[in-house]
Amino acid sequence: MSTQDKATIRKLPTGVPGLDEIVGGGLPEFSFNIIAGEPGSGKTTLAHQFVFANATPAQPALYFTVLGESAIKMLRYQQQYTFFDPAKLPGSIRFINLSQVVLDGDLGAVLNGITTEVERFNPAFVVVDSFRTMVRKPLSDLDLQSFIQRLSLFLASWQATTFLIGEYAEDELHDNPIFTVADGLFWLRQAPERNSIIRKLQIIKLRGQNSVPGLHTFRITEAGVQAFSRTFGLTGRVRNPPSHRRLCFGIPELDHMLSGGVREGDSVLVAGPSGTGKSVLATQFIAEGLRQGEPGIVAVFEECPQAYAERAANLGLDLETPQKEGKLAILYLRPLDLSVDETMHSILYAVEKIGAKRLIIDSLAGFEMALAPGFRADFRESLYRMIFALTGIGVTILSTVEVDESFTEFPFSTYSISFLADDIVRLRYVSIDGQLRKILVVIKMRGGNHAKDIREYEITSNGVVILGKRLIDFQSLISGLPIHSDRPAPPDEP
User: Fold this and answer.
1) How far apart are the first and last CA of the chain?
2) Burial, 489: exposed, middle or buried (Cβ in 10 Å; 0-12, 13-18, 19+)?
3) What is the DSSP letter of 450?
4) What's the CA gap between 202 and 360, in Å, rounded?
5) pLDDT tens digits for the chain (494 residues)?
6) Which end of the chain is more exposed for a tag (fewer CB within 10 A), N or C?
7) How many other CB atoms are found less than 10 A from the CB of residue 460?
8) Do 425 and 270 contact (CB within 8 A), yes or no?
């Protein structure tokens, strides 16, 4: 067979935000699919979204209900979702109850009931919900497989895209004959994590499609099911080539220490104990970008956007006007049951919406606390995926991280993630002449040289201000307990 004779499979939109990317661009037309999972995992809602997104008067859908919810009860709840369009009933979507047929007859009678309605309405889409209730009576594997085979062949001959919905446990995945017949198998999971519910979706199989493997988180909101691909929707995108352009902080002395600023597309880590000005430095970085005409995003986890903007105003930085002009987005992400994938999609959506060049994550500790407990165990791996994805499309990320101050150590982060950062700026307290003062040092800068100076700074009404020249009259500054070079060290206590 030549490539010219190869069949073309049309892809249908799933109607679920994020799911098209996971399944490889859409659902194969005329495919025979199963949506499986525990009760309450979102199976019916997912099927409704597909049907309402695709059914038309010319290509109608038949939705068979069996034993479980009646059509009236189902519609009562489903119409609460924003995707529900009552104008599509009954012209584009028709609900048919097979409960009595199932109760009175065998699988042959059920098959006859389905075929009669399909021949009558000639649908493009068929859903059986719940299919599992049709096979509660004891059946041999041969009888069940024969029924499934006949049903799938019949619906394929009518060129109908089909969904069977059923409650299945994961231990049934390996020995149930229905799964071998299906072209696509969607498995929905939900599990409690302390006070959170974690929902995950997996495409076990999907013939003819290059679907994204693995588990993907999803959420059910008033808009229905929304899926979050673990590839962040960036599959197939070409990474931007490394840039030699430098982005400034707007603090002349610090920019000089950074040889003109950090490279565009870098991941920058600002580390220091509480109160050293990490958030102030991050705010100045985003404000300088706005002055240079570079849109930006601030993802905050510890305060609301209004409070963040007001604090910036106290430093003489106007963040209200750029927000109104669509050049700045301040995202507040703190539901305490987020996944990194969901957070990343919120950020990526804002990046694409305003064309952001700079991103602030303030802070990594707040980010971790906003995640559901089950995702905190993989926090470092998730950060790697997120940073790699965002810097790959040219976004420069500045993350703040709080470290515990110690007079015997000089840590760069509490998560062992310094390897993820291209540039590290470390802030710390030192005790000098009976005062608690602050010093700043550039620890690391990939792709360029940087000053090795240790500089003192203050936080004023103008933000971070670096004072004077480098500190040359002290030894052991980074210990936090420096000594004057011209003074002898105090004797050790006996």
Assistant:
1) 91
2) exposed
3) -
4) 31
5) 555 667 788 999 999 999 999 999 999 999 999 999 988 899 999 999 999 999 999 999 999 988 767 788 888 999 999 999 999 999 999 999 888 887 787 778 888 999 999 999 999 999 998 777 666 555 566 677 788 888 889 998 999 999 999 888 877 777 777 788 899 999 999 988 777 788 999 999 999 899 999 999 999 999 999 999 888 766 555 566 767 899 999 999 999 999 999 999 999 999 999 999 999 999 999 999 999 999 999 999 888 999 999 999 999 999 999 999 999 999 997 666 778 888 888 888 899 999 999 999 998 888 888 887 777 777 888 888 888 889 988 999 999 999 887 655 666 666 677 788 999 999 998 888 878 889 999 999 987 899 999 899 999 998 999 987 777 777 777 766 777 776 555 555 44
6) C
7) 11
8) yes
Pairing of strands 32-37, 184-193: parallel
3-state secondary structure 40-82: CCCHHHHHHHHHHHHCCCCCCEEEEECCCCCHHHHHHHHCCCC
Tokens of 141: 């594997």
Q: What pTM was estimated for this model as a whole? A: 0.81
> Which of 206, 214, 161, 159 lies closest to 186, judged by CA?
206
If one counts every other C-beta atom within 10 angstroms of the C-beta of residue 115, the result is 15
CA-to-CA distance for 439 and 224, rounded, in angstroms? 50
Q: Buried b vs exposed e over 402-432: b needs ≥16 C-beta within 10 Å?
A: bbeeeeeebebbeeebbebbbbbbbbbbbeb
Q: Are 264 and 396 in contact (CB under 8 A)?
A: yes
Angle at 29 between CA 28 and CA 31, to 5 degrees: 75
Beta bridge partners of 95: 63
CA–CA dist 51, 14 (Å, integer):
8
- In our burial notation (b when 16+ CB lie closer than 10 A, e otherwise), range 9-35 reads eebbebbbbbbbbbbbbbbbbbbbbbb
CA distances from 107 to 110, 214, 437 (A): 5, 35, 81
Of the CA atoms within 13 Å of residue 151, those in its CB half-sphere come to 28
Biggest CA-to-CA distance, the chain: 100
Token pair 């005790």 in the structure block, residue: 431
DSSP 139-179: --HHHHHHHHHHHHHHHHHTT-EEEEEEE--GGGTTT-THH
CA 321/CA 309 separation, integer angstroms:
10
- Cα separation, 33 vs 31, whole angstroms: 6
